User: Fold Putative alkylphosphonate utilization operon protein from Serratia symbiotica str. Tucson.
Amino acid sequence: MQFPHCPQCHSEYTYQDHAMFICPECAHEWNDSAPTEDEDQLIVKDANGNLLSNGDVVTVVKDLKVKGSASMLKIGTKVKNIRLVAGDHNIDCKIEGFGPMKLKSEFVKKS
Assistant:
């Protein structure tokens, strides 16, 4: 049986103790079903500091100018089924009347 390499020191000499994996070289212990410390997890917070996740419904907290359009995205506009992405504009969504758009999480709050 092949065990996963240690996520901390990349040793191949790991062993399993019940639900945990243990590295005898650096003494690191981890659960293989849980994400490791090295994995990048996207953490996105709204204007109030609440954690956002894919599929959430958010509300725009200030009027936003839409680049390439004469109209504005008004305060209170609800945005359904958001998708979180890496980058400066970290929310990818579709807004009725505007179409696909990227928003910054600092301008929305979780509904």
User: Anything to note?
Assistant: The mean pLDDT is 88. The chain is about 0% helix and 30% strand.
